Amino acid sequence: MNLYGVYKKLFATYGAQGWWPLTACGATGAAESVSSHGYHPEDYTFPHNDRQRYEICLGAILTQNTAWVNAEQALMRLHSLKSLSPKTILHLAPHTLIWAVQPSGYYNVKAKKLRCFTRFWMTLQGTEPTRNQLLDVWGIGPETADSILLYAYGRHEMVVDAYTRRILAHLRFLPANCSYDQMKAFCTQHLPCDVPLYQEFHALIVEHAKHYYRRNPYTDPVLLPRNAGKNG
Q: Of 56, 70, 91, 212, which sits most exposed with the smallest number of CB within 10 A?
């Protein structure tokens, strides 16, 4: 099975994922396709405005080194404080911002990251950032930068993460110690250059990994039904 075959198999198994999820605040006024948790399967028109775009950026930072459900809790706390906007983030008292992001872990560092990113965001004045500009922001690495560009700006930037590494290594596409850039290059070379597909591929990898790639040795009855667990 080639990489595009992996994508098609995962899509057939799990269906459209509807990433990037938005909070109720971000999804206000959105189409009926938006679920109660902000997912919008097969609607690739999001984000609809800068408010949603900014929320996606914050979510990309908050989900670093944690599950999305924890980042979502932090976003909902910010929503409850009416603080899902650049000006309100910068005006929050430090201890209040730390309390808000606490569910996502590393809360002192992430509070600082949100402030640093927000100051950068305000300098953009509605323009799109480049990847290099994002990487120059304190706390923004390649995965976060690519998430922001793919989901907030609809740019052709493949997002790969630790789950991608586990799955590609288990399927023997790449060695487990390959770099982020090597993984990204492999995926872009073997998948059609399409923003919705890039979004779905990343989201499907996460969904699949939650079922079969949390603990080593890995088993994968979906992609390796005949020899699951023998390639790890």
A: 91
Question: Which residue segment(s) compose the domain that 43 sits in?
Answer: 3-212
Cα(11)–Cα(8) distance, integer angstroms: 5
pLDDT, one tens digit per residue, over 96-150 is 999 999 999 999 999 999 999 999 999 999 999 999 999 999 999 999 999 999 9
Structural domains counted in the chain:
1
Distance CA 90, CA 84 (A): 10
Q: For the chain, where are the alpha helices, taking DSSP H only?
A: 3-14, 50-62, 68-80, 86-91, 94-101, 107-124, 131-135, 142-147, 153, 162-170, 180-190, 195-212
Query: Is 232 domain-assigned?
Result: no
**Cα separations (Å) of 39 from 11, 23, 27, 223?**
16, 9, 9, 25
Select from 79, 21, 221, 56 the least CA-distant residue to 150: 56
How far apart CA 2 and CA 148 sit, in angstroms, is: 27
**Got the DSSP string for 90-115?**
HHS-HHHHHHHHGGGS-HHHHHHHHH
Cα gap 227→153, rounded to integer Å: 40
Model-level pTM? 0.93
> Does 50 reside within a domain?
yes
Cα distances from 41 to residues 14, 99, 206, in angstroms, run 11, 31, 15
Question: What confidence tens digit (pLDDT) does each residue in 176-207 have?
Answer: 999 999 999 999 999 999 999 999 999 999 99
Distance CA 76, CA 51 (A): 15
DSSP state of 148: I
